[in-house]
Predict the structure.
Amino acid sequence: GPFGLGRVAEPDEIAAWNLDVSPDGTGLPDGSGSVADGEQIFSDNCASCHGEFAEGLGNWPKLAGGDGTLANVDPVKTVGSYWPYLSTTWDYVNRSMPFGNAQSLSADDVYAITAYILYSNFLVDDDFVLSRENFTEVEMPNVGGFIPDDRPESEYAHWRVEPCMTDCKGVVEITMKATVLDVTPQESTDTAEPAESSAATAQAEAVPVEQAAEPAPVAEPVLAAFDPDLAAAGEKVFRKCRACHEVGADAKNKVGPQLHAIVGRTVGSVDGFKYSKAMASDGGTWSEEYLAAFLANPKKAMKGTKMSFAGLKKDSDIAAVTEYLKSVVE
Amino acid sequence: GDPLITEVQPWAQGFGDPVDATPYGLPIRFESDAVRRNVPWLTADPISSINFTPIHALDGTITPQGCAFERHHSGAIELAKPDYRLMINGMVDKPLVFSYEDLERFPRENHVYFLECAANTGMEWAGAQLNGAQFTHGMIHNMEYTGVSLRTLLEEAGYDTSAKWIYVEGADASSNGRSIPMEKALDDVIVAFKANGEALRKEHGYPVRLVVPGWEGNLWIKWLRRIEVTDQPVESREETSKYTDVLADGTARKFTWVMDAKSVVTSPSPQAPITHGPGPLVITGMAWSGHGRITRVDVSKDGGKTWETARLAREGENKALTRFYLDTEWDGSEMLLQSRAIDETGYVQPTKAQLREVRGLNSVYHNNCIQTWWVKPTGEAENVEVS
């Protein structure tokens, strides 16, 4: 170029980053995946936020349902009801999901997950297999539902007029007040009361569980061998966990239970968290050994856990996360 | 007399802080109100969420980086300059990779532009909800950017003149890719590395972000890592399932990039009540338009029955915030305060009723309606909707 700056991008570099997929299938790699495989992969990687049936948990996006709701008040915009192209699903899952562990899925996994999302929206049968070859044959229901920005015609011409300055309207009345809904966040000093009362409610509900569980053992022996550098490394690894778990003195339950001072804690003992049956009835203690086994392969270590995270592959990551969890006890 | 005057005060007698007490300073502790705030119930997780600029506590037009709102889709990543790479590929003579140092060797430009999230004021579609200009209008900031024009970089790679689009993406896990028409890419888009004179903050895309003047903030890719020259839009998640506008009949507008003219009174407002009683009162706010310069702002004290033209602090600047003032006398009676921006194309900021008539009630993005604050005789203000 004119400045002679920069260097030529190597083919392997372009291949590594040029991943976007277009509606006509440009950018799709070879591969395929079935609804059946997708169901398992979705359960392992996606269901903790999006639900086992892609129905969406809490505030997390719903991926299925909403058919025929777009003209309603509060339309339900899902992959099935709203997304115009299947390529968008494949592309987004491939590059940006799972949340907190992006670009960890194989092309076949992404085909399978995409197939399962189609199945969850009743757009394909349970024996469907999605592949690069049949990809563009899938037409999404709302493909014709979009128009390019028409504000210049539908709005601007009407509003580019000299505005009224006097006697512009008759009686002016207040028709709605923000304080009626009162959803404005309060400064932290003002929120202490409702937070305490909801905590109190949660505690009251959890009392029978408390009585049934063994008292949590004291955690001081683990602190003796504490390694701050390893803990710092573990804090980075813990980013994978943060989407679902909080730590710290004010930690709250999210998709997963809060993990404050978990090392040495009784398994399944956090107030107010709805555990799987397996977790609630485990009765053991989160020793470093048990935690390491669970983190390596949650579903193997505890059959029936609803934690869908696939596990940490590296032993060094497991050791680091454990050390980090030991460090957040104050 | 006033003891603050008649008696010698400690600060008039002893020492203040030495130099270097704060090698990079923060605002004095008395200004702790001027901070970003979050609305926790808005999103599932703060990793993919938004907070709001404290516009009620700011004046002038430049937003300090430290309190300029943040929007991340996968958290604010830490990307060091030595690890930074920018790739241009696709329909070009030569696909290129630039280092951060390379970017600093191209001719540089400086421009002040506003960045507004398309969802700013989006919660108010359904009616007055949040009590504070920060929460209703705080997904905006206005900074002076330093960087290289995107046209310069595209020319360096030798872009195919038949290409209609570029696709831009970030280095974070969300990638947040967006398609932009080539016409805009060659017009005024900047690959920026400084804001308000200093390096971009981590939360604003350090070390390099895209600046897309006048267009919705989602296009201003942070941690910019790749520009692909293409002949079609990618139809990515951010431009199909998000950042599209559902109309009353269920069809949706897409590619609604421009942020139309808009304004808001920042003081008085719910977080900035009148505390001084009747007499001289400065009513102030800000106005902006993605179509160009703000030429006029009108203010109404009676919910839109009568309007007065406010004073612009400076002549409006292209796609940048303009500060307006109405220097007035308050008689202590209630007011229904509104402001109305007009830009150089003659576009007049619409009422909520006008917007709803065209778009229905299901929109999320691009709500640029006239805002009303009910100022009570006590000086307190509340977010309301009026007939």
Confidence is low (pLDDT under 50) at residues 188-224 of chain A. Chain A touches chain B through 82 residues (CB under 8 Å). Chain A is about 40% helix and 5% strand.
